[in-house]
Amino acid sequence: MKILITGGAGFIGSAVVRRAVADGHQVVNVDALTYSANLENVAGVAGDPGYAFEQADICDETAVRSIFARHRPDAVMHLAAESHNDRAIEGPLDFVRTNVMGTAVLLEAARAHWAALPAARKGSFRFHHVSTDEVFGALGEDGDFTEATPYDPNSPYSSSKAGADHLVRAWGRTYGMPVVLTNCSNNYGPFQFPEKLIPTVITRALEGKTIPVYGDGRQVRDWLHVDDHAEALLLVLGKGRLGETYCIGGDATKRNIEVIQMLCAHLDAMAPANTPHAEKISFVTDRPGHDFRYSIDASKLKAELGWEPRMPLLAGLEDTVRWYVDNRDWVEGIRQRGFQSERLGLVKA
Q1: Is 294 labeled as catalytic in the residue annotation?
Q2: Could you say which DSSP state residue 125 is in?
Q3: Taking the model in full, what pTM does it have?
Q4: Catalytic annotation on 133?
Q5: Is 157 designated active site?
């Protein structure tokens, strides 16, 4: 099919683009190319005859409708979003604009396109909205998020994503649009922008800098390798039941400090320093509204579609550290565009 993927130059979006092209789909990558987007992430598929790129802001109604008219996609995968929690605290209105208003603009453009399709194509059209487990708020010491967990977002970022989720469901129920939603746990892997927890730890360690850890580092997250996530997303797009939500998790729940220590051990093996990297860990003031624990129950996705994560956490972290060690020029390119890792703390984790 021809899939219009928003945010396809970002971390998760580019993994979906690469996987979709490899699977034989045509892809229209729509990205505004804001600070965290990088066309190098999709350079490996840029020459494929089934790939097209459109630079556009999803809040630009005229541009979005024009893209639908030119490309006439069979499906939409909506991944474009502002997702950095620290940035959301500093500037929440940017998150409301992109995540809420941008989703509404995209839904309306998709609805107009869907309504005008011939009957056969109209019946197979899909709008897949990709969201986060953060919309559910925080868990205590036990329990898991499921598709039935009530929404209870605690940050400007998660609240804006919750708003987008509600809009997608409303378009499905009010207009009969064929929608499906997914809520994922923390992603990691190659090409992740170095303001998120895992690439922050790796890149700062490689530079010989301190490794900042929010609070006491005991926050718990469920870690999902981005390639496993991309596989799950395309499976849901093709076979998920319309109107349904699917939680996607990595079955790899760890405290942040445990993950950081695992990364330091891999760094000691691949890029040894004068002292063990773990000695560079520095505990810093926690950020406001920092959720304590996330954990995903992905049993619905496994039962209905047969999906489960393939990448064990220890091997996935090793693979990720190796990628950053071998691709320091990618990080340097980001730095040359003006990103300074010291400006922001650890996020989404």
Answers
A1: no
A2: -
A3: 0.93
A4: yes
A5: yes
